[in-house]
Amino acid sequence: MSTTIAAIATPQGAGGIGIVRISGPKSQEVADRIFRSPGNRRIRDTAGYQALYGHIYEGDTLVDEAIALVFRAPRSYTGEDVVELSCHGGMYVLGRVLSAALSAGAVAAAPGEFTKRAFLNGKLSLTQAESVMDIIGAQGRQAATAALAAREGVLGRRIQDVTDSLVELAAHLSAYIDYPEDDIPELQEVQLVGSLSDAHRRLDDLLATYDAGKILREGVDTVIVGRPNVGKSTLMNVLSGVERSIVTHIPGTTRDVVEETVRLGDVVLRLADTAGLHETDDPVEAIGVEKARGRLETAGLVLAVFDASQNLEEEDRCLLKKLDGRPAVAVINKTDLTPCIDEAFVRRHVPYVVTISAKQEMGMEQLREAVCDVLGAGSWDPSAGMLANERQRDCVRRAGEAVQEALDTTQMGMTYDAVSVSVEGAIDALLELTGERATEAVVDQVFARFCVGK
Ligand code: GDP
Ligand code: ZN
């Protein structure tokens, strides 16, 4: 890896400071060609972690005033010599500083190339590299905590623990297979099954963090359903704090699916208000109803709204039946009016029921708690690390399947050879997860998600 790369590392747009990052064996040389400090101090003569004040020139033309931060290999983000030029944060100026660096011998960095170099130089594991993206993209406290835990190696240690125990097992198995006549104590089947089951359980625990992590990163796909006029749009407006949906007395005025992202405690809901799940002759409304039906089946959370002041209608009962086994909260609205609804009937179908008045914004805290309960958010522990993407989940799933295979093989009384092959398969999947044994294609795919400058 002999090239020296450069890119603008701060976001597109205007800011107080913008940074051009240069990394590679010639980064100091490149920087010295475009950077002049008042006392003619050269970047290559400075110790690592020093900052120099000066000016950037392209040829003899002054481009900007800048601070050069010098990092020496291996003590830098990429593990290479790095110079960061902190300039004024305008896109035009930064573009010129970058082009000066490119003219002075650097090449334009590819997307994610700084982090990829950090990975290839052993500064980061693959899961840590992925966490860099997740820290940058985090939209809330828990998502940031999970990403930071991965960056700090908490997730990596959980994976490492399982890998270590499997490697130990594999070593024991192969010693026994290779030197059966020596005095290597035979593994008792109970021991073998015990270790494998333990590994399997820990992999399962890891897998379970994926769904929660996804909700924290992306929010939960939520649909608000209920027959016309029960207060769906009003509820949506309360949750989002904006008058987005049209609220009227005439049933069926919410013609299409309106979407909104709202935060309810620690959980982000991607909300859709719908035209209600009722039969209609109006073709425009019918489209909304169709969409609502589709979303009811796939949504990660259903808020089913009912009118407390009215008897349950056939349509309500129909909806309640559809909610069996779905992640749903029954929201009994309009409790400011005289109650009439058969609440017990609702509770028989949906375990999570809250009574609210959307109009008076009452009961929102209970709604928040019910949503957390349905999603199981109480048991989430982002600081213990969570699987952050499908690649990670896929690796853990494959490892789990291989361990299961090893368990089955053991219990069927097969030879240790067969067990050993499965255990090796599980180890492979885990090493692919951390990147210790990932193919170039896998690594490339991970960094393809990054953008230039990271
Ligand atoms: P949607 O058709 O389900 O979207 O229902 P809307 O949100 O459009 O509300 C229908 C009517 O019910 C409107 O006149 C609202 O003001 C009224 N409404 C909504 N929530 C409440 C509530 O909690 N109490 C009372 N009294 N009226 C409500
Ligand atoms: Zn509506």
TrEMBL record:
Domain TrmE-type G: 219-376
Note describing how the cofactor binds: Binds 1 potassium ion per subunit.
Residues the entry annotates as binding K(+): 229, 248, 250, 253
Superkingdom classification of source: Bacteria
tRNA processing recorded as keyword: yes
Keyword list, A-Z: Cytoplasm, GTP-binding, Hydrolase, Magnesium, Metal-binding, Nucleotide-binding, Potassium, tRNA processing
Gene Ontology biological process terms from the UniProt entry: tRNA methylation; tRNA wobble uridine modification
GO cellular component term of the entry, any: cytosol
Gene Ontology molecular function: any one: identical protein binding
Top EC class of this enzyme: hydrolase
Record localization: Cytoplasm
Obligatory cofactor(s): K(+)
Alphabetical list of InterPro entries matching this protein: G_TrmE, GTP-bd, GTP-bd_TrmE_N, GTPase_MnmE, MnmE_dom2, MnmE_helical, P-loop_NTPase, Small_GTP-bd
UniProt-annotated binding residues for Mg(2+): 233, 254
Main location: cytoplasm
Entry's EC annotation: 3.6.-.-
Residue sites binding GTP per the record: 229-234, 248-254, 273-276
A Pfam family that the UniProt record links to this protein: MMR_HSR1
Function of the molecule: Exhibits a very high intrinsic GTPase hydrolysis rate. Involved in the addition of a carboxymethylaminomethyl (cmnm) group at the wobble position (U34) of certain tRNAs, forming tRNA-cmnm(5)s(2)U34.
PANTHER family xref list: TRNA MODIFICATION GTPASE GTPBP3 (PTHR42714), TRNA MODIFICATION GTPASE GTPBP3, MITOCHONDRIAL (PTHR42714:SF2)
Family annotation (HAMAP family): GTPase_MnmE (MF_00379)
Subunit and interaction comment: Homodimer. Heterotetramer of two MnmE and two MnmG subunits.
Similarity section: Belongs to the TRAFAC class TrmE-Era-EngA-EngB-Septin-like GTPase superfamily. TrmE GTPase family.
Entry protein name: tRNA modification GTPase MnmE
Organism: Solibaculum mannosilyticum
Lineage: Bacteria, Bacillati, Bacillota, Clostridia, Eubacteriales
